[in-house]
Amino acid sequence: MKTLSLRRHHERRIKERMRSYYGGYARNNARALGKLAQSRSPCSCWMCGNPRRYSGESTLQERRSLCFDATEAALTGDEYDGGTG
Ligand SMILES: [Zn+2]
Fold first, then answer.
1. d(CA 7, CA 67)
2. Rounded to the nearest whole angstrom, what is the distance from the C-alpha of residue 52 to the centroid of ligand 1?
3. Average pLDDT of span 57-85
4. Is 1 helix (H, G, I), strand (E, B) or coil?
5. Burial of 18 (0-12, 13-18, 19+ CB in 10 A)
6. Cα-to-centroid distance, 67 and ligand 1 (Å)
7. Nearest to 23 by CA among 31, 32, 14
8. Cα of 5 from ligand 1 centre, angstroms
9. Domain boundaries of the chain, sorted by first residue
10. Residue 21 C-alpha to ligand 1 middle, in angstroms?
11. Model's pTM, two decimal places?
12. Can you give the pLDDT at residue 85?
């Protein structure tokens, strides 16, 4: 069971780690530190943001799914339709 004290322990632990991330810019800024602790990407620029938005790249989960479908089709002898359903 996740108790309040355990969640607080991990929150403190994560925030301590985040102090040195990205050159330590959030070290003395409680708000920035909290944001970093909740989400590791400090912004959504083209380097940090979702690659689908900037380059139309598919997610790792989608690529895994396509690979799994192709493998499954090869094993069962079915014709692979490119993952269209
Ligand atoms: Zn960024």
1. 37
2. 15
3. 81
4. coil
5. buried
6. 30
7. 32
8. 33
9. 1-42, 45-85
10. 13
11. 0.54
12. 56
Instruction: State in Å: Cα 59 to ligand 1 middle.
Output: 18
Q: How far is CA 20 from CA 14, 17, 34, 74, in A?
A: 11, 6, 13, 47
Q: Residue 41 C-alpha to ligand 1 middle, in angstroms?
A: 7
Surrounding residues of ion ligand 1, Cβ less than 5 A: 43, 45, 47-48
Distance 29 CA to ligand 1 centre (A): 18
How many angstroms separate the most distant Cα atoms in the chain? 60
State pLDDT tens for residues 6-21: 999 999 999 999 999 9
What are 40-61's pLDDT values in tens digits? 888 888 888 888 888 888 888 8
Query: 6 C-alpha vs ligand 1 centroid, how far in Å?
Result: 31
**Residue 22, Ramachandran bin (φ over 0: left; ψ between -120 and 50: alpha; else beta):** left
